[in-house]
Write a structure and sequence with these properties.
Number of strands: 18
Oligomer: single chain
Strand content: 25-35%
Number of domains: 2
CATH architecture of the largest domain: Alpha-Beta Complex
Number of helices: 12
Largest sheet: 7 strands, mixed
Helix content: 25-40%
CATH class of the largest domain: Alpha Beta
Length: about 375
């Protein structure tokens, strides 16, 4: 598959917003606008890397906004949007992607379906933009007086993301250096590149004023009210101890005097969580997808099983909202490794670390875990279908 990078343009000062804090760092329903924007692309399966163009004076605001999200080091922007985009593109040349999506940081409500449509359109075109047809009657004005009606046939409202083949849009930006063009599609058009129109979304609004921010909050409130299907699944798994020098729990290798026995790597935490996600989908259990009788799964990394469950969530139109794992054992101690486990799970699940919990408990020396014969795990996962 082609390698795709997302370039988020966040180098503006937001003068029209009327605040000392730039609009991209303003809270939207308690979450910075930029964080919502970056998270949408970082969690999309078709996007490999995310890079943000910022003003260096906003470095602290940026770091706070994206903490915990897998994102590249930011790039210093220029005095205009076009210059900032050009600088961002040049910064990608060290490891050039095949495709690049350029998106305004101030459009925090971008949805995965729109991103997918833009990427898909690049199979046949040099460029593609999300856009909506103009449906209102357009008037041309002259000093406050109607001077004529504009034919709205074939008129579209351009949004972002705007996607391109990387080498082509980089060349177009280099050729347009110094020109004042309103978006990257205009840069591409100037170089003779074909740019396709794909369906955008009315919710993909650009926050420019406080009124826009209020409208965005209303959209989020509506989305929350419209959630029609929230499912919770649970999972439980056990593995006994055997010879070895480490255990793997929630994707993290921990030195120990014994290992866990199993057909795969015996990661009891990932097995329980995989079953929880499959349970939320009504999709059976881990054994029905990866039979222990199949030799291809001997010694397999259990991350494969978890990613399979996550992919099923996306294929069925859902999104994983939260995961909670409890490890039940006397030894090894889980506390020193908890942070690494949370980070590993968040990466595998493509969700923010704030939506992942790993806990540990003992059985007060009772039962097989109390006798240190093995480790048990239970998990819960929440899947939302909107």
């Amino acid at each position: 598959m082609p390698r795709c990078s997302a370039l988020i343009v966040a180098a503006g000062h937001g003068a029209r917003f009327g605040s000392d804090m730039p609009k991209q760092y303003q809270p939207l329903a308690g979450v910075p606008i930029l964080r919502r924007t970056v998270a949408a692309f970082a969690s999309h399966p078709g996007v490999d890397t995310v890079r943000v163009v910022i003003q260096p004076v906003h470095a602290t605001l940026f770091a706070d906004a994206v903490r915990g999200i897998a994102v590249d080091e930011p790039v210093a922007g220029g005095s205009t949007r076009q210059e900032s985009c050009h600088r961002g593109l040049e910064s990608l040349t060290a490891a050039p992607p095949d495709l690049v999506l350029i998106h305004d940081a101030a459009r925090p409500l971008i949805d995965h379906d729109t991103i997918t449509r833009v990427i898909a359109a690049l199979e046949a075109s040099s460029g593609a933009i999300a856009a909506l047809p103009v449906v209102d009657t357009l008037k041309r004005g002259d000093h406050g007086i109607v001077a004529g009606t504009v034919d709205r046939t074939s008129l579209w409202r351009a949004q972002t993301p705007q996607g391109f083949h990387f080498t082509e849009i980089l060349g177009a930006h280099r050729a347009a250096s110094g020109a004042e063009l309103t978006d990257d599609a205009a840069v591409a058009e100037r170089s003779g590149l074909e740019v396709a129109l794909v369906a955008g979304h009315e919710d993909n609004l650009k926050v420019t004023t406080t009124a826009d921010l209020e409208r965005a909050e209303m959209v989020l409130s509506r989305r929350a009210a419209d959630l029609s299907d929230i499912r919770v699944g649970t999972g439980f798994d056990v593995h006994r101890f055997g010879p070895g020098d480490h255990v793997i729990l929630c994707g993290v290798a921990i030195p120990h005097g014994q290992s866990l026995e199993g057909h795969s790597d015996a990661d009891v935490g990932l097995h329980a969580l995989t079953d929880a996600i499959l349970g939320a989908l009504g999709a059976g259990d881990i054994g029905s997808h990866f039979p222990p009788s199949d030799p291809q799964w001997r010694g397999a990394d259990s991350a494969l099983f978890l990613r399979h469950a996550v992919d099923l969530v996306r294929e069925r139109g859902g999104r994983l909202s939260h995961a909670d794992v409890t490890l039940i054992c006397e030894r090894p101690r889980i506390g020193p490794h908890r942070s690494a486990m949370v980070s590993r799970l968040a990466s595998l699940l493509d969700i923010d670390v704030s939506r992942v919990s790993v806990k540990a408990t003992t059985t007060e020396s009772l039962g097989f875990t109390g006798r240190r014969e093995g480790i048990a795990a239970q998990a819960a996962a929440t899947v939302i279908f909107a």
